[in-house]
Amino acid sequence: ADVTIPIIVKDTTSFYWQIVLAGARKAGKDLGINVPELGAQAETDVNGQVSILENAVASNPAAIVIAPTEFKALGKPIDEAAAKVKVIGIDSGADSKAFTSFLTTDNVQGGRVAADGLAAAIGAANGGKIEGDVALITNAPGAGSLEQRKQGFTEQLKAKYPGLKLVADKYADGQATTGLNIATDLITANPNLKGIFASNLIMAQGVGQAVAENNLGGKLALVGFDSDEKLIKFLNDGVISALVVQDPYRMGYDGIKTALAASKGEKVEANVDTGANLVTKANMKDPKIDALLNPKL
Amino acid sequence: MTPTAQELHPAPVLEPGRTILELRGLEKRYPGTHALKPVNLAFKSGEIHAIVGENGAGKSTLIKLLTGVMPRTSGEVLWEGQPAALATPHEAMALGINAVHQEVVLCRHLTVAANMFLGEENSRFGILQQRAMVREAQTIIDDLGFDLPAHVMLGDLTIGQQQLIAAARATVRGTKFLIFDEPTAYLTRKEADQLFTLIRRLKGEGVTIIYISHRMEEVFELADRVSVLRDGTLVGTRNIAETNDAELVKMMINRSIEQVYHKEHFTPGAPIVETRNLSGKGFENISMTVRAGEIVGLYGLIGAGRSEFVTSLYGRHKKSAGQILWEGKDVQINSEHDAIKLGMALAPESRRDQGLCLNLPVGLNLNLPIYKRISSNLLISNAKEKAEADRQIAGLRIKTPTRGALASSLSGGNQQKIVIGKWLAHGAKLFIFDEPTVGVDVGTKAEIYRLFGELLSKGAGIILISSYLPEVYELADTLHVFRRGKLVATHGFHTASHEDILTQALAEKQEKLGGQT
Amino acid sequence: MSIEAIPAEKPKRNYNVLFGLTLLALLVLLWIVLSLATPSFASGNNIANLLRQGSMIAIMAVGQTFVIITGGIDLSVGAVVGFATVVVAMLINAGVPIAVAILITLLVGVAIGLFHGFGIVKMGLPPFIITLATLTSLRGIGLLMTNGNSININSDSFTAFSRNSFIGIPNLFWMVILVGVPAYVFLHHSRWGRYLFSVGSNAEASRLSGVNVQRTIYMAYTLSGLCAAFVGVLLAARIGIGNPTQAEGWELQAIASSVIGGTSLFGAVGSVHGPLLGAFILATINNGANLLNVNSFWQRIITGALIIIIVYFDGLRRRGK
Amino acid sequence: MSIEAIPAEKPKRNYNVLFGLTLLALLVLLWIVLSLATPSFASGNNIANLLRQGSMIAIMAVGQTFVIITGGIDLSVGAVVGFATVVVAMLINAGVPIAVAILITLLVGVAIGLFHGFGIVKMGLPPFIITLATLTSLRGIGLLMTNGNSININSDSFTAFSRNSFIGIPNLFWMVILVGVPAYVFLHHSRWGRYLFSVGSNAEASRLSGVNVQRTIYMAYTLSGLCAAFVGVLLAARIGIGNPTQAEGWELQAIASSVIGGTSLFGAVGSVHGPLLGAFILATINNGANLLNVNSFWQRIITGALIIIIVYFDGLRRRGK
Ligand SMILES: Nc1ncnc2c1ncn2[C@@H]1O[C@H](COP(=O)(O)OP(=O)(O)OP(=O)(O)O)[C@@H](O)[C@H]1O
Ligand SMILES: Nc1ncnc2c1ncn2[C@@H]1O[C@H](COP(=O)(O)OP(=O)(O)OP(=O)(O)O)[C@@H](O)[C@H]1O
Ligand SMILES: [Mg+2]
Ligand SMILES: [Mg+2]
């Protein structure tokens, strides 16, 4: 494989990004190109990703696929990189017009979908009444995509579900255990709590555990974001009401494929929305959804 | 010197005891130092065997080899005729060899009792018998006549008291062979006597004892035989009855010293400092004057409050009442900085804790008080820094390979010279020396005393604290006796006898330490 | 230079109890204030939550305290917890009986502790460095083993444990007692505990007294590794996954608990009950803040400020003894 | 116990240079190996990247070294960096002239350092605790100020600075020189530098020798806070945002760089060039691993192992001098 197209994700230590990388890896194999898998050690490590991008450019690749951790911060470095190689964006945006192509989930839209899912679940549990207190638990402050989900979620609540009151908007420290503790305390403190949105994988693991510990499955609505084996089990057991699931595998696969095409000077689509899907126990067996939940790693 | 010690204490007739421990070609090399050249020596059962020698002669090294603290480079040690490896302290202890090491090495955060039983705790089913140990420790301490409580933290005792505990500790351990490495360095006469009583008692019980000291009269008072080390070589062994002070000193330093106490008398000039009814923690109502050209000696037992008094004078600790006059003017000294600005210099009593930055170079230690002076604008003048350090090293004959060697690599006596030397360049008017010759050999002592003379001749005044009576007695123009924080007597040069001074310092029995905090 | 360390001796013991009481008083005060401020605090359910939440840091803090008493520090404990969740999860999913899986995981913790001892004693590395290096590497190894995924533990009996209670007290808190009582006896009433203090106070003196200093250091780090691995098992049971990036930053929480509990970072001063109280004080602060719905950002600020205040007053009281 | 610290003395200086050389040799060796292993390593572009990447940790490590030499530790520096990005971003967006904004940010760093000095000197808190508390609180304050969001800095001239070069060398690396040279002179050729060493070696002896120990401690923490705030400004320029959660864990990297560079965590041993070399060694390891496409999990493992190896051999060489 002489052609090299590195893929730079936000955080190599999370499952979500491992699926993206798996997609990219598969594409590399299918297309016969070399795909170095790069990424920072935390989603919030902006500087780390800038350095990785610089290093990747220095190794003279055919093109680069990147999931920018921070909209503004990665703008200039991407401009600079694009001066030397074609840059394909995936997952999140950046303040740059230099992307050759862009395959994203709209995280704001994802937040809206989560709000819809939560409202539906609350309705189902309370005889159709969409009323009561809800809470939002965010993995850690300072991560752009999580802020966008929060934005979409809160906007949608205000716009469509006046009966739902956001009583707690909590940040954890990136630890599932902290999510668990916060959720337990929120359940204790708010007897009228009807639903929680845990806006990423780690928080959904922790909050799901809190719901399970308190045997509130089916009584307290819980919507998570992204999926893994644990969350699917929670979904099956009725602990989690719904998951907003993106298509990370496709982002990785198509990202590399598009990058190769672009590097050959072929014309590629400028914007692709890979979508955010609401998964519930009802639709989880759909082949399309099932493929999202069980990506072929 | 005053009447030689052996006239006062006739040495006991030496029994031809059997050899308990024999060294054959014992040798130790440190990287860069040949500390002990092959030594052959036999110790007889039940004898008190003194070892003397200059600072750095290798005395402590010898002890470290015998107690398994360090491995030997070559040679053989026979214990009761059998070769002994002595690879670990544990092994030495199992044979019955114990030591009270030179620097007090016990655990400050453990109680006296815990220290005494450290490594040999009584436990039943794995549970420590703490009360029993405290009781037992107290019994031993009382039995030895030491007036100390067993349940307090060791760190709450003075260095001298800790030293006594270290000695008492050895008696717990089924000792057959006990080594004392300069045990009296921090003791006053009273504690030293208690210790000697202990040593004689142990000897009576058949324990063999090695006794290391820089104080000749102690050697003559206690020992049956004495061995002299010089530069790591055994120069000779003598029966105590067949030798004298002069011979030993000659053997030690390869030259003779006519006079250890080099005392010049100057006519005292104007008062430099005057205290009026100064009080603080540990001392009360102290009034004294130090004039240019005089040495004011402070004598007392351990804990008499002398160190507290001078450190308060120096601004390190708070004063509760009283007045200080500096060159006749009323002054406030609220920090050591104030004191130094006025022209005071303090060589503190513990060189390890207060005197030296041990892991820094000799040069830096010597220059520490004068960096301001040898900096031009922002930067240190390298040339001046070197010149100043070299001047002190040469002037005080500090034995160091270079000014860049770490202070910790010097022998005790030479470290002490740094503590003193750093103030010489600073040009103070009042020098306070708190126990300046602890652990210092005879030759070096003579040099330090000569230095006092030089300082006096330049118009400085000196406060000299010593728990070693002969030192203050022979050097001080004015001698103040402290007892439990009070100044109880004042004498001129040689106007009172040793006995009088001792009596004044002792007078009443010291209170038990237990209730002090 | 304080004396609370050794409870054995009469006048000390009084003081020690007093000291313990004062932290306990603080904890009780916090509880009273919170009970008045929010109705849900004093509910049995919440107390159970609180006990659960503080348990894991408490156990880590005890292990950490052993190390700190010797004058060292163990930065790896958070990483060990994360790594242990992975090990136990993999073993259980591979069908190893739960008891055996737990045992093996604990042995892994012991092995890591022994490695630290080796680095310090034999290689002469500063504890800060060797445990920092382990922290870094161990997360890497865990990530490699899991490929960055969480491992979902498929044994319900294992995960049920941490949720259940025994005579009304959460199992997790029983585990604190299970660790705390032997640790107390060990530290304050056995010769090995005594040696931890003596090594921290003066390693050379201890060696000269025949104390095996090296073995003592091995022991301290091994116990710390063991406690951390045990917490890893508990954590895996509690959230039902093995994930090497868990427990990030817990080492600092454990150290803070220990210091709040009166342990001196200079060594030779510490106890078992102090760190336990410290951990539950921190847990109470977080729990209370959650119940009062204090903004998460304010929670951080308050925690930092309280750490300063508690340690300051503790220091004051001791100096003014 | 080493002597490289004080360059004033002849035999030391030789040794000092030798020691510096040996780390330098290691760095050069790494560079040669990487140049052979991957064609892109030796490219001008990559060297520029490498210099940029190592710069920030290098500057923090220098400040940290001052503190460690006094026998302390400053865990807050990562949080100070993050906080400083917020401060400078807000000021610039509020229309404050860039130079003034930078100045104010640096003063904030100084104030934080002074607070640490106050806590240690006046309140008697252990450095570990007061700086840990600041770490926690400062992130909270920053988050409160930004409400958890990033602040986009809307001044292109500010952000351009960090990506530009001057005579072929990245501006960020010039900043290392800008900090390093005065720091070198300060530490090794001024009396305040000597006082840092003497306080770290024996505070009481220094005090009795007329050294103002309190002022020296204030100075060390102030310089560390200042360096961290400066790095915050550089980071804000580099990533174009203010965000309080940036630079998480950088304190440990700074400490590791310092120790790799020969600083002793027991105080009184350290230099300025050592931490710089240490930081660039770590940056090279990361850069090389990226270029060689080493799995990022393996990178962690390798980093941990290399820290152990480097510190071990450094220790060996020094003991065997
Ligand atoms: N750990 C060590 N490493 C290197 N050299 C050492 C060490 N310990 C002692 N030395 C050197 O060995 C020599 C003998 O030292 P030793 O401590 O035995 O002297 P000493 O006779 O006990 O002196 P003093 O009367 O001052 O206690 C000295 O030159 C000393 O500097
Ligand atoms: N570490 C300590 N803890 C508590 N009290 C102490 C301590 N050291 C000394 N003291 C007390 O302070 C008082 C004065 O002691 P100080 O050390 O000044 O006496 P000194 O005459 O200089 O004796 P020394 O020969 O021991 O130095 C005494 O009451 C003593 O018991
Ligand atoms: Mg000696
Ligand atoms: Mg004294």
UniProtKB/TrEMBL annotation, chain B:
<keyword id="KW-0677">Repeat</keyword>
<dbReference type="GO" id="GO:0016887">
    <property type="term" value="F:ATP hydrolysis activity"/>
</dbReference>
<dbReference type="InterPro" id="IPR027417">
    <property type="entry name" value="P-loop_NTPase"/>
</dbReference>
<dbReference type="GO" id="GO:0005524">
    <property type="term" value="F:ATP binding"/>
</dbReference>
<dbReference type="Pfam" id="PF00005">
    <property type="entry name" value="ABC_tran"/>
</dbReference>
<dbReference type="InterPro" id="IPR003439">
    <property type="entry name" value="ABC_transporter-like_ATP-bd"/>
</dbReference>
<keyword id="KW-0762">Sugar transport</keyword>
<feature type="domain" description="ABC transporter">
    <location>
        <begin position="267"/>
        <end position="509"/>
    </location>
</feature>
<keyword id="KW-0472">Membrane</keyword>
<dbReference type="InterPro" id="IPR003593">
    <property type="entry name" value="AAA+_ATPase"/>
</dbReference>
<keyword id="KW-0067">ATP-binding</keyword>
<keyword id="KW-1003">Cell membrane</keyword>
<feature type="domain" description="ABC transporter">
    <location>
        <begin position="21"/>
        <end position="256"/>
    </location>
</feature>
<dbReference type="InterPro" id="IPR017871">
    <property type="entry name" value="ABC_transporter-like_CS"/>
</dbReference>
<keyword id="KW-1278">Translocase</keyword>
<keyword id="KW-0813">Transport</keyword>
<dbReference type="GO" id="GO:0005886">
    <property type="term" value="C:plasma membrane"/>
</dbReference>
<comment type="similarity">
    <text>Belongs to the ABC transporter superfamily.</text>
</comment>
<dbReference type="InterPro" id="IPR050107">
    <property type="entry name" value="ABC_carbohydrate_import_ATPase"/>
</dbReference>
<protein>
    <submittedName>
        <fullName>ABC-type sugar transport system, ATPase component</fullName>
    </submittedName>
</protein>
<keyword id="KW-0547">Nucleotide-binding</keyword>
TrEMBL record, chains C, D:
<keyword id="KW-0472">Membrane</keyword>
<dbReference type="GO" id="GO:0005886">
    <property type="term" value="C:plasma membrane"/>
</dbReference>
<feature type="transmembrane region" description="Helical">
    <location>
        <begin position="98"/>
        <end position="119"/>
    </location>
</feature>
<feature type="transmembrane region" description="Helical">
    <location>
        <begin position="297"/>
        <end position="316"/>
    </location>
</feature>
<keyword id="KW-0812">Transmembrane</keyword>
<keyword id="KW-1133">Transmembrane helix</keyword>
<dbReference type="InterPro" id="IPR001851">
    <property type="entry name" value="ABC_transp_permease"/>
</dbReference>
<feature type="transmembrane region" description="Helical">
    <location>
        <begin position="125"/>
        <end position="145"/>
    </location>
</feature>
<protein>
    <submittedName>
        <fullName>Permease component of ribose/xylose/arabinose/galactoside ABC-type transporters</fullName>
    </submittedName>
</protein>
<feature type="transmembrane region" description="Helical">
    <location>
        <begin position="258"/>
        <end position="285"/>
    </location>
</feature>
<feature type="transmembrane region" description="Helical">
    <location>
        <begin position="166"/>
        <end position="187"/>
    </location>
</feature>
<keyword id="KW-1003">Cell membrane</keyword>
<dbReference type="Pfam" id="PF02653">
    <property type="entry name" value="BPD_transp_2"/>
</dbReference>
<feature type="transmembrane region" description="Helical">
    <location>
        <begin position="217"/>
        <end position="237"/>
    </location>
</feature>
<feature type="transmembrane region" description="Helical">
    <location>
        <begin position="66"/>
        <end position="91"/>
    </location>
</feature>
<dbReference type="GO" id="GO:0022857">
    <property type="term" value="F:transmembrane transporter activity"/>
</dbReference>
